[in-house]
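Quick one: structure tokens for this chain, please?
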Amino acid sequence: MPVRGPCSWKAVDVAYQTKQKRIVDGYLVACARLGDRAAQQKLVERYQTKFLRHAYRLLGDPEQARDSVQDGWIEILRGLPKLRDEDAFAAWAFRIITRRCAKLIAGLQKTRATLKRAAQTPPEEHGAADIELAAERGPLRAAMARLPAGHRAAVALFYLEDLSVGEVAVALDLPAGTVKTRLMHAREKLRAALQGEER
């Protein structure tokens, strides 16, 4: 089939880098599963910030996010021997972090108030600038902060963590159709918010 129009070498380069990262992750997971402490440490280094961002988006509180991620790592490292597919590590691990966050939320007396506050308050007011993405600064960050927690998490995993719709579904423990719907609604809200900023 002939290629029409100019090739996007930037897209090819990004795809190649993503594939390389997954190959390295797969190797580290295989070694960590066999008890290699250095590989386990390297996995923690590669995923700690991603998990903190994800937990913070769900919880809205940096201390609770750190606690959930710490508990999540214990479960992840203990469960590694049971993980059969190294390529499934990211989605599987994000799902564990998601469940840890859900468990924490369920134990809070003021769950609704916490989620509402997290969805409406810019992240830096919580003192969590150290775990925020540079890409979320300015109007985009503000628009993302106004999204409901579930939409914000789906957008971040799909666009910022390079997970597929299927992997996001596993990570958030949702049907793929629900993830697609959340992404669609989130894109519409972000587009409207950013167009409003331009005006």
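The radius of gyration is 18 Å.
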